[in-house]
From TrEMBL:
Gene3D superfamilies: Beta Polymerase, domain 2
Protein name as annotated: Nucleotidyltransferase domain-containing protein
Molecular function via GO: nucleotidyltransferase activity
Domain Polymerase nucleotidyl transferase residues, every copy: 83-138
Keyword Transferase tagged: yes
Length: 300
């Protein structure tokens, strides 16, 4: 019941899917297998088909919501590409991609443009600090079109939390800058095929980053042991700030939602990953009780 699990997952976001989209998330080789599975779900009144969309339950308004969000996403993606190119010019940035709701083709008034940034080794925290300073000073700390909340170093590309949430984020990630490093990134995260066997990264149109003279100069100045110490100092300062600001979080949640290592920086204080997995498991339990269908639950 891969198709049902996919529909349930996206129903958390009130985002109904089409046949081809559902097929891309399951492990059926033939799309007719997916179609037959969906027909069974319709006949059992577990899923409803509205035009080309498959909806769990009676949330019929979710189709209209998706269509409106798809239209706004086309405009937002143009802006995201411009911002990604700008971000790629900062010192130590090697690759930039778009994640979050926009990467799935949805954007509304409450959405942010989320960027996934890959940096040079040993300089992640210098890179992050420079980008954050730009956001605070020139964008007045607005994250609407400049949400930079996930950084990894190119020497540590494998994502540690390997679950359906992170697999979905990797599958839908839109690489925009830094083609060669993104090739390495996908090569280091082949575990995604355990979830989505038909996944094929789309990186042919990804541009290579071009650094201006100013960025090259900063990289040259800090490309030494002093630069490594500065990078570590920024990490310590940021971590202490987060520990104080989010002291209410337990240690386990903090380490996942606000991971701060030499090669990783995450700023997800809402721990969205955990909430989504929890919501999915609630829906799986609901299906078990209502329709006597047992589907394996997911874990963070």
């Amino acid at each position: 019941m891969d198709s049902l699990k996919t529909i349930l997952y996206f129903s958390i976001f009130r985002y109904p899917l089409k046949l081809e989209e559902i097929h891309s998330y399951n492990n059926h080789t033939d799309i007719d297998e997916t179609f037959n599975e969906l027909q069974y779900l319709i006949n059992e009144k577990i899923v409803t088909k509205i035009d080309d969309f498959y909806v769990y339950g009676t949330d019929l308004d979710s189709v209209t919501k998706r269509l409106k969000g798809n239209l706004q996403a086309k405009k937002a993606l143009i802006k995201a590409k411009e911002r990604a190119k700008f971000i790629s010019k900062f010192p130590y940035v090697q690759s930039v991609g778009v994640s979050g709701s926009l990467s799935k083709g949805y954007f509304d008034n409450d959405s942010d443009i989320d960027f996934f940034v890959i940096t040079k080794p040993e300089k992640l925290w210098i890179c992050r600090t420079l980008l954050m300073l730009y956001k605070k000073i020139f964008l007045l700390n607005s994250r609407k079109y400049f949400c930079i909340n996930y950084f990894v170093s190119s020497c540590s590309l494998e994502i540690e939390e390997q679950n359906r949430f992170t697999a979905t984020e990797l599958k839908t990630l839109i690489p925009l800058q830094g083609k060669d490093v993104f090739k390495q990134f996908y090569n280091e995260n082949k575990w995604i095929y355990d979830y989505f066997s038909k996944f094929t990264p789309e990186i042919n149109s990804v541009e290579e980053t071009q650094k201006p003279f100013f960025s090259k100069t900063i990289e040259f100045i800090f490309d030494n042991k002093i630069g490594n110490k500065v990078d570590n100092a920024f990490k310590i300062i940021t971590l202490k700030k987060w520990q104080s600001k989010f002291s209410y979080m337990n240690q386990t949640d903090f380490k996942i939602a606000l991971k701060s290592t030499k090669n990783i920086s995450k700023h997800h204080p809402s721990n969205f990953q955990k909430k989504v997995i929890f919501s999915l498991n609630e829906k799986l339990e609901e299906v078990r009780q209502k329709f006597n269908i047992e589907i394996i639950k997911e874990y963070v």
